[in-house]
Design brief:
With about 35 residues, the protein is mainly α. The protein is built from two helices and no strands.
């Protein structure tokens, strides 16, 4: 059983991982639109 804090940290790690992949694959021109 994970505590609430551990679940939150795990969620943040997953989000950072997904964002890093998105930045790596999305063209720079698209990033400037955001």
């Amino acid at each position: 059983m994970f505590t609430a804090v551990e679940k939150l940290l795990a969620l943040l790690l997953v989000i950072l991982f997904i964002v890093s992949i998105a930045i790596a694959f999305i063209p720079d021109g698209f990033l400037h639109l955001i």
